[in-house]
Design goal:
The chain is mostly helical and 221 residues long. The chain has one domain: dinb family like domain (Four Helix Bundle (Hemerythrin (Met), subunit A)), CATH 1.20.120. 56% of the residues lie in helices and 4% in strands. The chain contains eight helices and two strands, in the order ααααββαααα. Strands 1-2 form a two-stranded antiparallel sheet. α6 packs across α7. The radius of gyration is 17 Å and the shape is globular.
Length: 221
């Protein structure tokens, strides 16, 4: 099993366990760190990402890769202030399309299928997702980062465990690639993820330390 596969197995298992606990405790409508979305809405979004992973892993692509685990994220900008239409649409669909208990079960089944599919595709094989071509291990890293950042969103207002240390370390590696250098040593990996994606504002001290690189923040949204 490759390192990205193992990280993906970890983050998917942790999210499935978290969803089960939130369903048991009736916290599906608790707020999250993703503006305008409750737990239910974010779980629906994460299910969609797992389904996208299945499609990508089953879509071989000829030619050279045009994205990797870092450059994939350069296309994802945070929404402009007040531009909440996509968030509202997602919430409307999520709240009417499926009960949370079914959503939790679907997520566990779909992510298990993703892990099986990932194990059947050689690490260097190229696949297509969202119009871009990536090697499989690079795609798996993007899935790890997406799931880990949203795991932080899920627990932003809850007393629940966040992502595993090795998963957050992968997030930081990708963010430092986007930033063009190391992030602040004062930030733990969870703080680095939140501040680099605009979930927490940069302080004056952060901006002074980052210098001109601060202009690129948030690195993706």
């Amino acid at each position: 099993m490759t390192a990205p596969q193992q990280l993906l197995r970890t983050v998917y298992a942790d999210l499935s366990e978290l969803f089960q606990a939130l369903a048991t405790d009736g916290e599906e409508w608790a707020p999250t760190g993703c503006r305008g979305w409750a737990v239910h809405d974010l779980a629906f979004h994460l299910l969609g990402d797992a389904r996208r992973a299945l499609v990508g892993l089953a879509t071989p692509a000829p030619g050279p890769a045009d994205r990797d685990a870092v450059t994939y994220w350069r296309a994802w900008e945070p929404p402009e202030p007040g531009n909440d239409e996509a968030l509202r649409r997602s919430r409307a669909v999520a709240s009417t399309a499926v009960a949370f208990a079914d959503l939790v079960e679907d997520y566990a089944e779909t992510t298990a299928a993703v892990l099986v599919a990932a194990g059947r595709v050689p690490a260097g094989e190229r696949v297509r997702t969202q119009g871009w071509v990536l090697e499989v291990d690079q795609l798996l890293s993007t899935l790890v980062v997406e799931a880990a950042v949203h795991h932080l969103d899920l627990v932003a207002h809850l007393d629940r465990p966040g992502p595993a240390a090795d998963v957050l370390a992968e997030v930081r590696r990708v963010l430092e690639g986007l930033a063009g250098g190391p992030l602040s040593a004062r930030w733990d990996d969870a703080t680095a993820a939140r501040r680099s994606t605009g979930r927490e504002p940069l302080s004056d001290e952060d901006r002074a330390e980052l210098g001109v690189r601060a202009e690129a923040f948030p690195l993706f949204g």
